[in-house]
Amino acid sequence: MITGGTGGLGTALVRRLIANDYRIAVTYLLPEEAQAFESEFEVDEERIMLTRVDCTNAEAVTTYFKQVIDRWGSIHGLCALVGGWAGGRDIEETDDVRFERMLDLNLRSAFYTVRAVIPHLKEAEWGRIVLVGSRGAIDFFGAQGAFNIAKAGVAALGRSVATELEGTGVTANVLLPSVIDTPATRRSLPFADYVNWPTPDEIAAVAQFLLSDDSGVMNGAMIPVYGRA
Questions:
Q1: Is 70 exceeded by the pLDDT of residue 169?
Q2: What are 74-108's pLDDT values in tens digits?
Q3: Contact 5/11 with Cβ under 8 angstroms?
Q4: H/E/C letters for each residue in 186-221?
Q5: Residue 109: in which H helix or E strand, if any?
Q6: Beta strands in 102-176 (DSSP E)
Q7: Does residue 38 surpass a pLDDT of 90?
Q8: pLDDT value at residue 193
Q9: Is residue 138 a contact partner of residue 155, using CB atoms and an 8 Å limit?
């Protein structure tokens, strides 16, 4: 299961997983992203389940997980990619709307999906949870305090779940990107030097490993995936 799977990183991860015969449940929110996704993958309903879900809504997430179970019977992995960035303001300048938006997109969406998937992974007695934090969760860059706080919460969520699920066959790890080289990021930072930015596929390669059986010795890891960015 990949929530927010029609963005740059999600699409790169789907390319990799489809090549290895995974069945993938993908959520999206923006119709234009879903159209581009369907155009690239020619969605086969036996392999890909593409569903519009607002992952900041706990009830919608719970309903969605039931739909996946009803179709495919089990879930063995979650990569939670829903998120967003807002910067340019120090803490004293951050209004409630911006703060709540960062919590919704980054922390609440991850919390709701992780909470919903845990019973299914435990029932399967094998599972992988991959969350996306941020370098800002540990280095705390200025003028993006609300984002830093939300992503630090995601990191804490990953570590907490890893501890709670120890010995169950289910692991949880957190990726820590900084800036990912996507068209959307380049548009938002038009004058930045993107030469050293990691690509979505480079980060997806790490996520793919974390979703595999080979990553079983890793649990509760905070994994930097920002290279020299």
A1: yes
A2: 999 999 999 988 876 888 998 999 999 999 999 99
A3: yes
A4: HHHCCCCCCCCCCCHHHHHHHHHHHCCHHHCCCCCC
A5: helix 109-124
A6: 127-132, 170-176
A7: yes
A8: 77
A9: yes
223: phi then psi, degrees, rounded to nearest 5: -110, 110
Hey, how many other C-beta atoms are within 10 angstroms of the C-beta on 95?
10
Using CA atoms, how far apart are residues 150 and 91, in angstroms rounded to an integer?
Answer: 13
Residue 204 corresponds to which tokens in the numbers above?
């997806």
Average pLDDT of the residues of the chain: 93
Distance, in Å, from the CA atom of 171 to the CA atom of 19, rounded to the nearest integer, reads 23
Cβ neighbours for 139, distance < 8 A, ≥ 6 positions apart: none
Check whether 199 has a pLDDT greater than 70.
Answer: yes
3-state SS track over 45-81: CCCEEEEECCCCCHHHHHHHHHHHHHHHCCCCEEEEC
pLDDT of 58: 98
Q: What distance in Å separates the CA atoms of residue 68 and residue 48, rounded to the nearest whole number? A: 11
How far is residue 59 from each of residues 6, 97, 113, 124, 179, measured CA to CA in Å? 21, 22, 10, 23, 31
At residue 175, the 3 state secondary structure works out as strand
For 222, the 3-state DSSP assignment is strand
Strand (E) or helix (H) holding 154: helix 145-164
* Radius of gyration from C-alpha coordinates of the chain: 17
Average pLDDT over residues 42-69: 94
Q: Say if pTM beats, i.e. exceeds, 0.85.
A: yes
Q: Which amino acid is at 120?
A: H
